[in-house]
UniProtKB/TrEMBL annotation:
Highest taxon in the source lineage: Archaea
Function: Catalyzes the reversible oxidation of malate to oxaloacetate.
GO biological process assignments: lactate metabolic process; tricarboxylic acid cycle
Species the sequence originates in: Methanolobus profundi
Domain Lactate/malate dehydrogenase N-terminal: 3-141
EC number(s) given by UniProt: 1.1.1.37
The protein's name in its UniProt record: Malate dehydrogenase
Length: 307
């Protein structure tokens, strides 16, 4: 049986554990420093197994030694932003948490693939890569798939069509500078520009960019977790089942898209070795410039963790 460790038992962590359990593809261990919380939530999820028909072990723990043997470790721990804050405002706190977690992963699960979810996503992913010194294909962030799912859901709603026929793509950092790509977004193969006017596309693009903040503003305390956990589960499944889905993720770039020494959202092929390939899309000059602005914003954050 495969094994997945989920670090953090807040909304994102616990919902991720539930979704993974329901996929029935791995034993799961949920780790948190808060005593009792991961144990209680894991037990609750385990007790739903007879009703939901999954047959995997779900364990909650405060002891990192329990992540030993994990194929994938998902880092969700850290604080969430409040209305009016940017994701970058979380850096000072979340970087320390991430560094401690990475030291434990190195110690107990040195062969694992690490998926980061904690914000600011691209900077945290870069930090996790640098802390652990794992190969670049084994450390990446969940970001673009969430943003693309949001983009796709807004497109389907606007056109009153099934989301199943929508394919949407968002590149760049998981922040205000993300780059939704209408030209690479289609409904049954038909590009958006043939289906809606420019003003509508712009409205949907802006809503996608602000989608996380829209939910934070509604919730006042805490941030989205249903769509994020769905994106995490999709990516974990592609790794464990070696499905080789091509999805956008924050990956370490070494020349791809003209970028070096940075983690940024780009389409990747996800399989049993983690990021097995980085897919280079042909971008227009305007799209390249937008991606460069996004990379510059991420780089500014990275320079803070270096200093
Ligand atoms: C999201 O996009 O939902 C997350 O990055 C959380 C946030 O702060 O918006």
């Amino acid at each position: 049986m495969n094994k997945v460790a989920v670090i953090g038992s807040g909304n994102v962590g616990a919902t991720t554990v539930q979704r993974l359990a329901e996929l029935n593809i791995a034993d799961i261990v949920m780790v948190d420093i808060v005593e009792g919380l991961p144990q209680g939530k894991a037990l609750d999820i385990l007790q739903a197994a007879p009703l939901m028909g999954y047959d995997v072990d779900v364990k909650g723990t405060n002891d990192y030694a329990d992540i030993a043997g994990s194929d994938v470790v998902v880092i969700t721990a850290g604080i969430a932003r409040k209305p009016g804050m940017s994701r970058d405002d979380l850096l000072a706190t979340n970087i320390k948490i991430t560094q401690q977690i990475c030291a434990s992963i190195e110690q107990y699960a040195p062969d694992a693939i690490i998926m980061t979810v904690t914000n600011p996503l691209d900077i945290i992913t870069y930090a996790a890569l640098r802390c652990t010194q794992f190969d670049r294909n084994k450390v990446f962030g969940m970001s673009g798939l969430l943003d693309s799912s949001r983009f796709a859901s807004f497109i389907a709603k606007e056109l009153n069509c099934s989301v199943k026929d929508v394919c949407a793509m968002v590149l760049g950092g998981h922040g205000d500078s993300m780059v939704p790509l209408p030209e690479y977004s289609t409904v049954s193969g038909v590009p958006l520009s043939k289906l809606m006017d420019e003003a509508t596309i712009e409205r949907i693009v802006n809503r996608t960019i602000n989608a996380g903040a829209e939910i934070v503003a509604y919730m006042k305390s805490g941030s989205a977790f249903y769509a994020p956990s769905a994106a995490i589960a999709t990516m974990v499944e592609s790794i464990l089942n070696d499905t080789k889905r091509i999805v956008p993720a924050s990956a370490f770039l070494n020349g791809e898209y003209g970028q070096h020494d940075i983690c940024l959202g780009v389409p990747v092929k996800l399989g049993k070795n983690g990021v097995e390939e980085i897919i280079e899309l042909e971008l227009t000059k305007q799209e390249m410039e937008a991606l460069q602005r996004s990379a510059d914003a991420v780089r500014e954050g990275i320079s803070k963790i270096r200093s």
